[in-house]
Specification:
Elements (H helix, E strand, L loop, with lengths): L1 E5 L3 H12 L3 E6 L14 E4 L5 H6 L7 E4 L4 H13 L5 E6 L16 E4 H13 L4 E7 L4 E7 L20 E8 L2 E3 L12 E7 L3 H7 L10
Parallel strand pairs: 1-2, 1-4, 2-3, 4-5, 5-6
Antiparallel strand pairs: 7-8, 8-11, 9-10, 9-11
Length: 225
């Protein structure tokens, strides 16, 4: 997969290194010379340029990239880059970093953003996921807010223990995608039994969250990411 990253600061560099380890092709776009250091990710293509300038992106052949990541420390730059990538170059997947949670409402399809990642909110959700048992926790928003990835950790004494996955009466537009159990990742099958302390990951529409909560006997909803 070809991935273009705007911003070669600490965040952009770390993302590039992870993607390169996964065997992907990576281009880093950075306007500050002091942030350009090819020794950090020698397999990446480094471009000294402003990712908000249309001419620059044309010269970088951005239309040939399948995914772009707006990872600068400036929300305005991330929005402009996202919009150009989607509208001018037809990039299929646009992921954008949200630096200030107050700007999160801007990062949607109207600015070309497919997935917005707010570090403060993500960290808060991960903390809550680690301590919340018996309550739904929203981990990530998908498809411009149309669906969410949510998690539920079953209590040790859950009444669902020993019951098969097929007995879960899940609402429409809800799917159980994974069970995490003792370090294992289980793709749920209809006859698989549930156990206390299982972590259940669901993809659900926003409208179905309340029905999912009721179906699982959850009385409250954890803080959202």
């Amino acid at each position: 997969m070809k991935v273009a990253i705007a911003g070669a600061g600490a965040v952009g560099r770390s993302i590039a290194q992870e993607l390169l380890r996964g065997g992907h092709e990576v281009m880093l776009l950075e306007r500050r010379l002091d942030h350009i250091d090819p020794t950090i990710a020698p397999a990446a293509v480094w471009v000294h340029a402003d990712a908000c300038e249309l001419e620059t992106l044309e010269g970088a052949d951005l239309e040939t990239y399948e995914v772009v990541i707006a990872a600068t420390g400036d929300d305005k730059a991330n929005l402009v880059f996202s919009l150009l990538a989607k509208t001018e170059f037809g990039v299929r997947r646009v992921v954008a970093r949200v630096n200030d949670p107050r700007n999160e409402w801007l990062f949607d399809s109207s600015w070309g953003v497919d997935v917005a990642v707010s570090t403060p909110r993500l960290l808060a959700s991960l903390v809550e996921e680690a301590v919340s048992i018996g309550d739904l926790v929203r981990l990530m928003t998908l498809r411009q807010g149309q669906a969410n990835l949510v998690e539920l950790t079953l209590p040790t004494d859950t009444p669902l223990a020993g019951k098969a996955v097929r007995t879960l009466k899940l609402p429409r537009d809800v799917s159980l995608v994974t069970i995490l159990r003792g370090g294992r990742v289980i793709v749920p099958q209809p006859d698989d039994p549930l156990e206390g302390e299982d972590e259940l990951l669901f993809v659900t529409t926003v409208e179905a969250e309340d029905d999912l909560r009721k179906a699982l006997g959850v009385n409250g909803f954890g803080r959202s990411a």
